[in-house]
């Protein structure tokens, strides 16, 4: 049996997010978020599911941490629920909310698990949405004030910080495509929101530096790889637009202080002009200490004038698919990681999300999710290959520890290495849990 050994200091972890696992939405002083509103709006979430209970991790976090301890992870990536801290988005602080996260972080530290905190994982306080949400520049300032409070409150306990999770989803998926909260379908609005998210990120990083908070800070863009179906210029340019939309649009401003001109022009031609105020780009290009990369799938793309706003379509090349319909292609993971390293340099990278939707259920007390093991094996091998090619990857965090509320798909889609029975809330370790436990224990991959 051959092995791929990972570096001595390579970190292994699991990830979750507040709205997807906590539940207790009307307990502990929490205020409503846009996902409370969206999930309770008929037709928005499959089967009318919502995060009211989810995995009940607000009450069961000790059980979840015991699972992490058994798994042997070094890092736990979680998110703080902004409306659990500021029920009105700003102003009065909910001390019960802070106390909950102190209990959880203290329990992680007691168990030798490093907390990695995502400040924004999509649960914007509804009060702020009622004032325009991320389209309103006041929300940028509200995010900075929220971030400052959390920085100060957990300084010394939390040393790895992520400002915003998947700004492409927060802006374009949620305000142009409209599949996520708040469900707008307006490209110009989405472009403006994408800029405000980057501004919020940059200002929060600047505040983190000003406060001299110990630790490292980054953000977590979702990325993909689009392989041109042919070398025809039209196909190559169509794929460049697809990658530009999800990758360059969010990384260029932070690493170069400018947006990719070809995308600025494309949006302008689609009546969605980018509006930048003096000084914005200076804020946005605050240096980060690392990037979190969220990767799930890649596609083969080709030009199609009827292929939506970007005039690009995905070509089914017969790759295996996950139970949410995404193509499985670990080669794309390697391609996008090396693309990022080539374009943005030696910046340390954590894989902050990688995983697969496999909906296998419990049979005889276990879940035989071999397809998840195969996916994880192929993608962790792609990480090893990228490392060998010189990509500065510091850790791998799989999505997710638990099956959880999968946004507009509700509870129908399962990404966890631990199965959750949503009626009894019983956790059942899947075969992938034990496989990942072995990878972590050895910090090597059997190939
Ligand atoms: N879908 N899917 C799974 C996973 C989602 O559950 C996370 O909350 C997001 O950060 C990212 O989209 C990836």
From TrEMBL:
Keywords, sorted A to Z: Carbohydrate metabolism, Cellulose degradation, Glycosidase, Hydrolase, Polysaccharide degradation
EC number: 3.2.1.21
Coiled-coil intervals: none
Alphabetized Gene3D superfamilies for the sequence: Glycosidases (3.20.20.80)
Top-tier EC class: hydrolase
Full protein name: Beta-glucosidase
The reaction(s) this protein catalyses: Hydrolysis of terminal, non-reducing beta-D-glucosyl residues with release of beta-D-glucose
Homology family: Belongs to the glycosyl hydrolase 1 family.
Keyword check for Hydrolase: yes
Source species, domain of life: Bacteria
Key word Hydrolase present: yes
SUPFAM superfamilies for the chain: (Trans)glycosidases
Gene Ontology molecular function terms on file: beta-glucosidase activity
